[in-house]
Amino acid sequence: MMNNHFADVILPLALRGTFTYSIGNEFTGKVFPGMRVLVQVGSKKVYTGIICRIHDEPPALEKIRPITGILDDVPVADAIQIRLWQWISGYYMCTPGEVMKAALPSALFPEGMVAGTLREKYRPRKEAFVQIHTESAGDELNLIIDKLNRSPKQRHLFITYLKMSGYPGCSEKIPLKKELLLREADVSQAVLESLVRKKILVSLMLETSRLSNQENRRDPFSILSDPQKKALDKIRHLFSEKGIVLLHGVTSSGKTEIYIHLIEEQLKQGRQVLYLLPEIALTTQIINRLKKHFGDSTGVYHSRFSEAEKVEIRNKVASGDAGGGYGLVIGVRSALFLPFRKLGLVIIDEEQDPSYKQHDPAPRYHARDTAIVLAGLHGAHALLGSASPSVESYHNSVTGKYGLVELKERYGFVNLPEIILANTRESYRKKLMISHFTPELLEAMDEALNNKEQIILFQNRRGFAPYLECPECGWVPKCNQCSVNLTYHKGQNRLICHYCGYFQPLPAHCGNCNSPGLVTRGFGTEKIEDEIRIVFPKARVARLDQDTTKGRDAFNRIISAFEQNRTDILIGTQMISKGLDFENLTVVGVLNADNLLNFPDFRAHERSFHLLEQVSGRAGRRKKQGRVIIQTADPDNKIIRLVLKHDYYNLFRLQAEERQAFNYPPFCRMIRISLKHKDRAALNGFSDILGNDLKSVFGKRVLGPEYPLISRIQSWYIKTILIKLGRDKSAVNAKLVIAEAIARLEKEKGASSLRIAIDVDPY
Known about the structure:
This protein is of the alpha/beta class. The chain has 5 domains: 6-113, GIY-YIG endonuclease (3-Layer(aba) Sandwich), CATH 3.40.1440.60; 125-208, no CATH class; 226-412, P-loop containing nucleotide triphosphate hydrolases (Rossmann fold), CATH 3.40.50; 418-464 and 523-657, Rossmann fold (3-Layer(aba) Sandwich), CATH 3.40.50.300; 668-760, 2-Layer Sandwich (Alpha-Beta Plaits), CATH 3.30.70. 33% of the residues lie in helices and 22% in strands. The protein contains 23 helices and 32 strands. The strands form 7 sheets. The chain has a 7-stranded parallel beta sheet, sandwiched between helices. Strands 1, 2, 3, 4, 5 and 6 form a 6-stranded antiparallel beta sheet that branches. A hairpin with a 4-residue loop joins strand 20 (487-489) and strand 21. Helix 5 (152-165) packs across helix 7 (189-197) and helix 22 (680-698) packs antiparallel against helix 23. It is globular.
């Protein structure tokens, strides 16, 4: 049998493993790993898959289907990308197809029926252009112009073309966009058609980019302070020893400037850089800042691009820094999957941020950890940056796995903000509260507004009120598909479920006792906005949350208005807490710190510290010292006292001691299995079977099955099983045992209606 006669293909489906197809003689020598191929699945469907391996090992099947077509001349995924997919699939216990679907834009996967026409999803954009005709290019231009004297509009259009294109001064014919040419000459399409008929100009369709043009101007780099220089030198030294370095710098210490110098070094060597950020919301200011230094070699990648735009960005990354390609890519977690050719450095900014973890759908990967693996595959360096690192990363640095560099001073020796604790319990008792604002916060806001300074108010809950309640019987409107209360959104006059999107009009009466007058309980950003407008009627107020940033450019508009001092008070959720830099911002108010702290999660205290430290760091980042007013009913809380002193080191010490005592990461590995079923009794039965099966192997390291805090979402009941694995045990073997137990459960009668999701490192 001919060598390399078979191809293992990854299909964009949630099916375990890869699928083997034969390579017909017509494709011999034309297919390679990473290429897109068309294959038949079942009796009717044709899918696009990616070849991951070519070999001569016939599978144990009676019938082997052939590849029916190839879509590329060159691979769309290289060997390193495929190895990364395989690592994600194995480590995070998901299928290769799920990884591939996350890694590649859906526009690259045409599909159709066997008997029908394949539906191609991506088509290059083409636009109409105009250039001088070949037969006229060699003529004396003055003669052509003279011939057009009797047709003044045609003459004017031709002269306009010459001016705009620079012809004949250029060595080649320059095509101009037809739309721009006609607009500049202010003539009709008919005038152009006359010149085309006379073979003076020619119309043609050319492929153009969907991506916006970028400026080529590059600003000089800022001069580093002595602490920054020392940090940069230490990072370079540690890269030669460790490969992975954690940069722990207080807010406004100038971490980004250090990143910029490291990026420049890589670009000069002809290597690429990936700069990861946790959320799209953070990209605008960073993009503008980096483009000033690196110009049109800077690319951006996130989910708000169209699928066709994503394909074009991939092509620019694949071409590197030459010929209009990208040397520097700024993106969120999905940017990990871009086809880097010469990756030299990966920067993971705000490495502690929970947004780096993908929860649903699969693959449920952590972008920080995956980025470190990606850097290793390329032989690149990885730099993690944070003002308050995750316990896991700091543990890795103090134990010697990562290098550690620390910046303990703000750039320019600007003071850290003064943090003031405002006791809401006492203020309510003494009747000093005005709405949800303590006297301390109102006084600071009033002073800032009088000084023409800006204010941010942080409330990590959107909507007007978390729920409505009947004052007579205590009835609360709930979602009919999820086990959560409906949130009241005043602007839409609706009750909305933040889990499934269900909504209903505001009820006029109680659904239980029919009494009128439901009252709001708690408060969200929408309510704060309403009340601030009453307390400070002359202030210009804006709100930044998921409800106000649904449009593609909405976030940019809100942030730009605040940057340009067209907004005095910005109210927002955690979107406002990270990475933003405002020169005139001097007051930050945290309206309810207790909501963050009192959450049933082993990382609640750590994440509360991160969030409070980050939002505090927005204040006073220039010459003026900022003030942060934290409203809390428990000012003696140990975490709040640590935030008061910006004491990350004692936070780490306390968290490490607690986690070691109770066996939580980084001292163990965790795997969470979620089981979902629309029948509660059936879910209980199946979860007990799996739980008992796992306990027979792992014993007390298996917790559950238990109902989670929210036990029903979109009509699916949920139960979870948590497995804690010791660091001294083989994670690979444990995952095999778990996979086998799940496979046995799936063979049980009635299990076809059961949904099972595995989340490795679910934090």
